[in-house]
């Protein structure tokens, strides 16, 4: 469904963030993108919806090459790609409801959005989503009154109300505590399964990624150095992605948790 | 490797630590300091004071201060009233017009929103507006439009643009990029992006600056009268010319009260919109 071909990004400073990345994501697949800071994870997902302009290569979403689109067509295609951000990126002074409804901006006209008169179906869907993530009572609160976990749930609603085919998720748990991190990852993966969405999740926490996804991509210096199942991430592989370090603790931890979960 | 760091550390232990100075070269640093002090002394010494004139003037100054104990609101009541109304009309009209024009210019003058050519033009407008002091603009506009509040209104509108656009543009440039980026990622068009991603971030500042500018415009309207651009300043000027200090005191008291009231209101409003 999503196909990256020789996707390259060279920043003006001359830094090559992505070096001819090829990647094929089938419908409904949730994959984790891991790699050290500066490996190009954020750049990769931002090149897909062109918040960052790729230097060369193509991004095929279905039959459409996103890199060739003009401004209006790009806006239409962005509606099919929901994005969830590190640090939530909610508009803090808007209410929870406005933040969720902002996911419909690609569908409604300027005056409707300016006067906050959204179609009833959008409002209903917003309430349904907020109820699904357990925040329906918070609809009229301002976004900056919420806790981190709550904000990220609102961020998830904003992405889902776009009715996307693909979720681009950038470090969803970077500033959350371990328990909330798991809850958020679980929620994202459950919602993807319910709606048959594909997702690319940038994530620092290898153990957390291994718990929830079917496929892991390892990125190092803008190149894919690992593409496989979470179980295949051996200490050697992790060393290849991140560099020398003792990986036993990380991996054992995960296996222990899986046993726990199975029990 | 460890050996080397240890030896370096041993060298450092027991030595005094000072913050590295701003100017590294010692002689240059002291030349700048001593030169600065000498210039200050010479500058103050060069101001001539005619002490006998000061002695005479003290009396007049004292009369002026005393007038504040017996301000005369009534004998020129009509003139004060007309002047105040004119000043307030000028202030409100110039603030509204100035703010409305400032907002698009501020958007254009924010580098993170506007393309370079638009940015250059808008920054140019701001630079011109800020470079020309109100009094100079007022003198020019009085020459064009004649005496009266029209010149004052136009002057204040013009000055508001430079002030508000610059400060608002700086606030837009300092906004949180990720919030705006999130709105762009939804497929919002430009207007919606401004409405949802940018406005909520800068609105409290815009409101705060606007109220502050109303305050400044009112005070300026008292000055502009001195060059014939209408408002309470004209009345004030006349009072001074006729040595009617009690009337002048009454006018100044009114100005002070109104400015303080505006200050008080702005405090309340700013707390509300934060």
Automatic annotation (TrEMBL), chain A:
<dbReference type="InterPro" id="IPR003439">
    <property type="entry name" value="ABC_transporter-like_ATP-bd"/>
</dbReference>
<dbReference type="GO" id="GO:0016020">
    <property type="term" value="C:membrane"/>
</dbReference>
<dbReference type="InterPro" id="IPR003593">
    <property type="entry name" value="AAA+_ATPase"/>
</dbReference>
<dbReference type="GO" id="GO:0016887">
    <property type="term" value="F:ATP hydrolysis activity"/>
</dbReference>
<keyword id="KW-1278">Translocase</keyword>
<keyword id="KW-0472">Membrane</keyword>
<dbReference type="Pfam" id="PF00005">
    <property type="entry name" value="ABC_tran"/>
</dbReference>
<feature type="domain" description="ABC transporter">
    <location>
        <begin position="2"/>
        <end position="246"/>
    </location>
</feature>
<keyword id="KW-0997">Cell inner membrane</keyword>
<keyword id="KW-0067">ATP-binding</keyword>
<keyword id="KW-0378">Hydrolase</keyword>
<dbReference type="GO" id="GO:0005524">
    <property type="term" value="F:ATP binding"/>
</dbReference>
<protein>
    <submittedName>
        <fullName>PhnC protein</fullName>
        <ecNumber>3.6.3.27</ecNumber>
    </submittedName>
</protein>
<dbReference type="GO" id="GO:0015416">
    <property type="term" value="F:ABC-type phosphonate transporter activity"/>
</dbReference>
<keyword id="KW-0547">Nucleotide-binding</keyword>
<dbReference type="InterPro" id="IPR050086">
    <property type="entry name" value="MetN_ABC_transporter-like"/>
</dbReference>
<dbReference type="InterPro" id="IPR012693">
    <property type="entry name" value="ABC_transpr_PhnC"/>
</dbReference>
<dbReference type="InterPro" id="IPR017871">
    <property type="entry name" value="ABC_transporter-like_CS"/>
</dbReference>
<keyword id="KW-0813">Transport</keyword>
<dbReference type="InterPro" id="IPR027417">
    <property type="entry name" value="P-loop_NTPase"/>
</dbReference>
<keyword id="KW-1003">Cell membrane</keyword>
From TrEMBL, chain B:
<keyword id="KW-0812">Transmembrane</keyword>
<keyword id="KW-0813">Transport</keyword>
<feature type="transmembrane region" description="Helical">
    <location>
        <begin position="88"/>
        <end position="109"/>
    </location>
</feature>
<dbReference type="InterPro" id="IPR005769">
    <property type="entry name" value="PhnE/PtxC"/>
</dbReference>
<comment type="similarity">
    <text>Belongs to the binding-protein-dependent transport system permease family.</text>
</comment>
<keyword id="KW-0472">Membrane</keyword>
<keyword id="KW-1133">Transmembrane helix</keyword>
<feature type="transmembrane region" description="Helical">
    <location>
        <begin position="246"/>
        <end position="265"/>
    </location>
</feature>
<dbReference type="InterPro" id="IPR035906">
    <property type="entry name" value="MetI-like_sf"/>
</dbReference>
<dbReference type="InterPro" id="IPR000515">
    <property type="entry name" value="MetI-like"/>
</dbReference>
<dbReference type="GO" id="GO:0015416">
    <property type="term" value="F:ABC-type phosphonate transporter activity"/>
</dbReference>
<protein>
    <submittedName>
        <fullName>PhnE_2 protein</fullName>
    </submittedName>
</protein>
<feature type="domain" description="ABC transmembrane type-1">
    <location>
        <begin position="84"/>
        <end position="266"/>
    </location>
</feature>
<dbReference type="GO" id="GO:0005886">
    <property type="term" value="C:plasma membrane"/>
</dbReference>
<dbReference type="Pfam" id="PF00528">
    <property type="entry name" value="BPD_transp_1"/>
</dbReference>
<keyword id="KW-1003">Cell membrane</keyword>
<feature type="transmembrane region" description="Helical">
    <location>
        <begin position="27"/>
        <end position="47"/>
    </location>
</feature>
């Amino acid at each position: 469904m999503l196909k990256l071909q020789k996707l390259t990004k060279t920043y003006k400073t001359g830094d090559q963030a992505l070096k001819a990345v090829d990647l094929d994501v089938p419908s409904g697949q949730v994959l984790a993108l891991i790699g050290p800071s500066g490996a190009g994870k954020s750049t990769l997902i931002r090149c897909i919806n062109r918040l960052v302009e790729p230097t060369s290569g193509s991004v095929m979403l279905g039959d459409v090459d996103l890199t060739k689109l003009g401004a209006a067509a790009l806006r239409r295609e962005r509606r099919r790609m929901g994005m969830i951000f590190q640090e939530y990126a909610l508009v803090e002074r808007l209410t929870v409801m406005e933040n969720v409804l902002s996911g419909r901006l690609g569908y409604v006209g300027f005056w409707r959005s300016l006067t906050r008169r959204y179609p009833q179906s959008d409002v209903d869907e917003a309430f349904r989503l907020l109820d699904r993530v357990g925040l329906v009572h918070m609809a009229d609160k301002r976004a900056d009154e919420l806790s981190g976990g709550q904000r990220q749930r609102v961020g998830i609603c904003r992405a889902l109300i776009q009715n996307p085919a693909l979720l681009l998720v950038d470090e969803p748990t970077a500033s959350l505590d371990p328990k909330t991190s798991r809850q958020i990852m679980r929620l994202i993966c459950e919602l993807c399964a319910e709606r048959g969405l594909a997702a690319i999740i940038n994530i620092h926490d290898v153990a957390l990624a291994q718990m929830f996804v079917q496929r892991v991509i390892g990125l190092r210096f803008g190149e894919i150095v690992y593409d496989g199942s979470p179980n295949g991430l051996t200490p050697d592989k992790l060393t290849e992605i991140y560099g020398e370090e003792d990986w036993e603790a990380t991996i054992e931890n995960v296996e222990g948790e899986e046993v726990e979960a199975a029990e | 490797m460890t050996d080397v760091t240890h030896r370096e550390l041993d060298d450092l232990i027991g030595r005094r630590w000072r913050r590295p100075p701003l100017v590294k070269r010692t002689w240059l640093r002291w030349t700048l300091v001593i030169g600065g002090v000498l210039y200050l002394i010479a500058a103050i010494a060069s101001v001539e004071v005619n002490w006998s004139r000061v002695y005479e003037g003290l009396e007049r100054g004292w009369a002026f201060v005393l007038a504040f104990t017996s301000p005369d609101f009534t004998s020129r009541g009509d003139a004060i009233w007309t002047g105040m109304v004119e000043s307030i009309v000028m202030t409100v009209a110039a603030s509204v017009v100035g703010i409305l024009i400032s907002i698009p210019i501020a958007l254009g003058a924010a580098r993170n929103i506007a393309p370079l050519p638009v940015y250059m033009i808008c920054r140019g407008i701001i630079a011109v507006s800020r470079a020309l002091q109100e009094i100079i603009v007022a003198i020019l506009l009085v020459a064009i439009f004649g005496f009266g509040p029209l010149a004052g209104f136009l002057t204040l509108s013009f000055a508001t643009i430079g002030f508000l656009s610059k400060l608002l543009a700086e606030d837009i440039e300092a906004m949180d990029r990720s919030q705006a980026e999130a709105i762009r990622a939804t497929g919002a068009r430009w207007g919606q992006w401004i409405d949802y991603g940018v406005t909520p971030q800068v609105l409290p500042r815009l409101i705060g600056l606007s109220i502050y500018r109303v305050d400044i415009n009112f005070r300026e309207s008292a000055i502009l009268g001195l060059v014939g651009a209408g408002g309470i300043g004209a009345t004030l000027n006349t009072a001074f010319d006729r040595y009617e200090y009690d009337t002048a005191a009454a006018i100044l008291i009114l100005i002070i009260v109104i400015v303080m009231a505006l200050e008080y209101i702005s405090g309340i409003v700013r707390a509300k919109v934060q």
